[in-house]
Amino acid sequence: MINNIWTGDKVRLRAIVPTDWEKFHNNDLDSDSARLCDVIYFPRSEEGTKNWAEHQASKGPEGDSIMLAIETLDGNLVGSINTHGCDTRHGTFKYGVAVFREHWRKGYASEAVTILLRYYFEELRYQKVTAHVYAFNEGSIALQERLGFVQEGRLRNMIYSKGQHFDEYVFGLTKSEFES
């Protein structure tokens, strides 16, 4: 049996391909999900989403920052995960994960994050990861806590959505905490 670092028991991480456009486009129509992950953007045409997927498929990592698709082992696209703010000098990076609504609460996000962290800690020598989570995103808060992240900070009134301001939490996890 071949061992692939990007594959877990439920999901694998892979590059985004042009044919992923439709699922990403449909996900963009879910305003509540968009709000939890980032912000609600202006509507994008199908052609615009196709161009976005083409662009994602043709570009590689920028340094150690990357966006990857999350798919089930039978090849069903269920979301995406990305790294950003990768600082090789200090060994720190940030990540974000988004799972399409119909695939919530199946363990896909947890496993995708674990796969990503294993790679960054064990292969790229990073020593700490942080995640920024909106105070109203109870699912993401629970995910960070379940994965062993510690809430390290609270940025007051950082996010404006649904007509009001919300706090943003900063969660962190060190390599040694991940290993234990």
From TrEMBL:
Keywords: Transferase. The keyword Transferase applies. InterPro entries: Acyl_CoA_acyltransferase, GNAT_dom. Residues 11-176 form the N-acetyltransferase domain. One of its GO terms (molecular function) is acyltransferase activity, transferring groups other than amino-acyl groups. This is GNAT family N-acetyltransferase. It comes from Paenibacillus agri.
